[in-house]
Amino acid sequence: MAEDSDLEKTEQASPKRLETAREEGDVPRSRELATVSVLFAAGLSFWMMGSHLNSALKISMQQGLSLERADAFDPIKLLMKISNMTIDLLIAFAPFALVLLVVALASPALIGGWVVSRKSIMPQFGRLNPIKGLSNMVSKNAAVELIKSIAKTILVATVAYIVIAGELEPILSLSSMSVTNGVSEVSHLLIVGFLSIVSALVLIAAIDVPYQLYQYAQKLKMTKEEVRQESKESEGNPEIKARVRQQQREMARRRMMSEVPKADVVITNPTHYAVAIQYQENGSRAPVVIAKGADTIALKIREIAKEHQVMTLEAPKLARALYAHTELGDEIPQTLYSAVAEVLAYVFQMRIFNKDGGYRPEMPTSLLVPEGMDPHSLLPIPNTVTDEVLA
User: Fold this and answer.
1) Interior CA angle at 35 toward 31 and 39, to 5°?
2) Bridge-partner residues for 278, per DSSP?
3) Cα(342)–Cα(364) distance, rounded to whole angstroms?
4) Do 160 and 193 contact (CB within 8 A), yes or no?
5) Under 8 Å CB-to-CB from 152, ≥6 apart: which residues?
6) 281-326 pLDDT, tens per residue?
């Protein structure tokens, strides 16, 4: 059952899959929207430019029908006349053609946007497969296209009938009109009928656009296995990433351990925590934590400190506070200045005592750790130096 669910396309397409599909030229498209946009633009443009186009056609026809006898037997003059007439018509119809061109290019941007893909224009010989072609003829998409064609036919026929029925009287009276009035009336009927039919087709486009978006989303859906595989490809294999993170932690730990010999003192809990502190008079403003750890890492820090003769001081509350409120390389918090200052003063005095002898300094027994800094909130525990205090 789990394998079956992994093979079912139940997951929405990821941004990467959508981007890949777009790069391949696969974007949602609605032919109905593009068709209606171009037809509507053609009808409106013809309505607005009709008189101008009509005049241009009239002038062109007059020029074509008025021909002098000498020109009729001169091929060069005849060709020049035809060329001039063609150029005039092209100039007259240029605005109309430009409007259609702009609308035809802009309509795809309404759904899916513009996309230029080299793969989409490359020949795909798989489309020549007759078996695949036959399967497309009986597919769900073919059934939807058939339903749309039937709906468009019914809609166009209905609107055409309504328009003709509404203009029946002017149509029947065309035979009694003059040529000028008749042509004007016919032009009006054609434009009104054309725009009415195109307006009706807007309904088909309004249904087709959401359907195409839905179909596109369904087509690009992914299985759970595809999602996992994509995650591995984009973000890397989790096992490899975990191994890399572990190696990075090991390297960071080794770097931290190499800093322990430079510490002035290691403050412990005594066994669970260990924090190594270094203070440079000409360096940072306050002592800096150069190593810290818990449990096995704390034990390793203590072993390195002992090996390199770094003093170790048991101060449970202070050790826990430093461990909880500092990171490697951080200066100690201001609230712990007083306690750490007492520890460092004791450490420096012990160095002098071990070197020159004299009066042995007293170990601090009550370090001030403000309330709330110790995460364990334990009762005060006497601070004691380990049995082996080394210079």
Assistant:
1) 175
2) 288
3) 7
4) yes
5) 201, 204
6) 776 678 888 888 888 888 888 888 888 888 888 888 888 888 888 8
